[in-house]
Amino acid sequence: MSVTLDSNQWNLVYNIFSFGLISMLACTVYTLVSQSRVLPKYRNALVMSSMVTFIAGYHYWRIFNSFNEATTAGSFEVNVSGANGAFNEAYRYVDWLLTVPLLLVEVIAVLALAKELSKSLIMRLVPASAAMIALGYPGEISDVRGTQILFGVLSTLPFLYILYVLFVELTKSLERQPAGVADTVKRLRLLLIATWGVYPISYILGMQGDPTASSFVGVQVGYTIADILAKCVFGLTILKIARMKSHAEGMAADH
Q1: I need a surface site. Which of 24, 80, 120, 227 has the fewest CB within 10 A?
Q2: What is the helix, strand, coil percentage profile of the chain, to 5?
Q3: Cα–Cα distance for residue pair 38/41, rounded to 1 Å
Q4: Which helix (H) or strand (E) element contains residue 78?
Q5: Apex CA 96: angle with CA 55 and CA 11, to 5°?
Q6: What are phi and psi of 79, to 5 degrees?
Q7: Pick from 79, 67, 2: which is nearest to 221 by CA?
Q8: Which domains can be identified in the chain, with CATH numbers?
Q9: 3: which strand partners?
């Protein structure tokens, strides 16, 4: 099975993968060199952010290579059969299986919640994130519409649970945040919903049974944009919160 793209579609996918790769690598470097700009208690959040984008950068390198290798020489035909040498969608799910739990821990770390509450949130959210990704994968690789819908619905349940828990806890944390930080946390809350909301939209674009050129392009571009927003933009917002909280707690503003 293969999809035949036109030159514009192929170049769009090629370029968006390239953009995703360099975005992840740049954010990794930036968050790493920014460690000294926050208090030690918030550095774990930046370490998590660096790990998220580094892992994602590695997988985008693999996705980028897989796309090139799956393209028939001299044409824009992409092998999506799932056989050896075909475009490997599994790289995304391996990436998400590693990075989504880290993203959740990253949020909890920057909020500096009580130890017992942080532990409780991790114990609830990490298994839910694993379930969300594990349930989504069978639908992603299936070319049967019924299977795609079934696993899409099943994976949405832990997805909604994660968003609900995070939204509630971020709201509760507002009153404990220093002056000025609460507004940024509110934006983080909205950013979380907006960026994570792109993933199910991209999944739905692929729910057409056998893939078409337009559905393939829509899914790949959608997932890549969602990853950049959820990992890079989200990570930079976490850095901003960590810096603001560090300054509010006495760290010199010139750091």
Answers
A1: 120
A2: 80, 5, 20
A3: 8
A4: strand 77-79
A5: 75
A6: -75, 115
A7: 67
A8: 2-248 (1.20.1070.10)
A9: 78
